[in-house]
Amino acid sequence: MNPVIETIMSHRSIRQFKDERISNEQISSIIKAAQMAPSSRFMQTYSIIGITNPLIKKELGKITGLTYVENNGHFLLFCADLHRLTIKASDKEKQNMQDMLESTQFYQIATIDASLAAQNAALAAESMGLGVVYIGAIAKGLPEIDKLLNIPSHVIPLFGMAIGFPDQQPEIKPRLPLEAVYFENQYNTNMDEQQELIEGYDQKMKAYYETRSENQRADTWSCKNIALFQKKADAHFSQYVKEKRMNLL
Amino acid sequence: MNPVIETIMSHRSIRQFKDERISNEQISSIIKAAQMAPSSRFMQTYSIIGITNPLIKKELGKITGLTYVENNGHFLLFCADLHRLTIKASDKEKQNMQDMLESTQFYQIATIDASLAAQNAALAAESMGLGVVYIGAIAKGLPEIDKLLNIPSHVIPLFGMAIGFPDQQPEIKPRLPLEAVYFENQYNTNMDEQQELIEGYDQKMKAYYETRSENQRADTWSCKNIALFQKKADAHFSQYVKEKRMNLL
User: Fold this and answer.
1) The Nitroreductase domain covers which part of the protein (chains A, B) (predicted)?
2) Which of A92, A135, B33, B154 sits a CA distance of 20 to 30 A from A16?
3) CA of B87, closest CA in chain A: separation in Å?
4) Mean pLDDT, rounded, for A34-58
């Protein structure tokens, strides 16, 4: 196993950090690593906002309800960003750009660009012995975050990333069996096979949830997902995206 | 620079591969690396389809118009996949899940999950001396690909990835200045500053496009992007996503 694959295979999310900021040199390496990710048509349609102001971190901690959003070595917010593409356009060109800026296709493209950059950032941080955790819970207060960070149209925050010196060493979570996520030549729609694979994985995760060092509970992977999806969709979410003039067409 | 950051910083897309398949062992390492990516609420909402059938590869080459989609060491298709979450649900539970399955929020989440997995796969491949290129051009024929690969509802192909033994060594493309993508505490809406940064980058990219070893042209980064966005949005794209029962709410 080479050092890259070793770093990848050692990933666990870290949610408890030492009270120590990461250095500006580390931040710079992490951002430069993010920038080296591939991007669709080389458009680089993402932005990253680093939060150093303790008041803003406190506010983000409140919005997400997560202590480690406030208490970490650094906090990054990853945004899908189509706005930058318009900066050098004339008024007339800008006008003509609206249709594609507002399309689902470019909302998806910018989301992918930002995600590829983020995973480079995460691995760069982990390769330096830092821990990271992605923060999807920013979705709980997108309009507030938007205002707080002065985010323009055609830009939306996708997720945060807390980074820092790990103050815990959780177990690595077992993943789905390879055959459940990887198919050859066509999607596997043999439901008996798929059910059997998921059933086996549910038993494995049940044992994991029951015996892990923290946050033990009685649950399976399927049960927790199915329970989560019994709720109604959050209409505010798609409304927010549309108000930012993305995903309209 | 540690070996992980070195691999990240050496990325260039490879579009010409030697006529040699990568080994099953390499494929397995790449997929396992993909699986170790973080995923939202540990839902692992992605699937990967590896294409080994030469007829299907030929077809995908035709759809995308790209020779390297057919000619490579292996081809992966990354999909956002919410379908798997329903496999163990009862009919009644499945019914209740539809709302969230059809939401923009979970379309975005699955897109991010698949992208994080893909970037792990890309770096794992590159760490073994292989080259990769992401293929966004599958968007040219989503309904055909859907049929060809038997893809169920709540699953959509996002992009392909051609992998193989590199038969070219292109230059590394200069990225945007760090200050153009990374902001502190709030989004930089100082347009004069941003315009100056992009102007400087346009000049840098102009020199790059004029002097690189292949595919030379007279262009700037901004001009090529603005030109691309003068077209109308592809309505078939968002229609396809909606037909797959995603991004509806």
Assistant:
1) 8-164
2) B33
3) 6
4) 98
Domain-wise residue ranges, chain A = 3-170+234-243, 178-225
> In sequence order, which residues have a C-beta less than 8 Å from that of residue A73 and are 6 or more positions away?
A17, A18, A20, A21, A22, A130, A163, A164, A165
Task: Check residue B166 and report its DSSP letter.
Answer: B
CA pair distance B242, A38, nearest whole angstrom: 27
Both structure tokens of A20:
């120590």
ipTM of the complex: 0.98
Q: How close does chain B come to A210, measured CA to CA in Å?
A: 16
- The residue length of chain B stands at 249
For tokens 């493309």, the residue is B173
On chain B, the residues whose CB falls within 8 A of the CB of A37 are 11, 119
Q: CB of B129 within 8 A of CB of B18?
A: no
User: Domain B3-170+236-243 belongs to what architecture?
Assistant: 3-Layer(aba) Sandwich (3.40)
Distance CA B85, CA B56 (A): 28
- Token reading at B165: 């033994």
A-B CB pairs within 8 A amount to 342
CA–CA distance, B247 with B249 (Å, rounded to integer): 6
Mutation target for B interface from A225, A231, A241, A246: give the one with most B CBs within 10 A: A225
CA distance B189 to A150: 8
Q: Which segments in chain B show pLDDT lower than 70? A: none
Query: CATH assignment of A3-170+234-243?
Result: 3.40.109.10
Q: What is the mean pLDDT of chain A?
A: 97
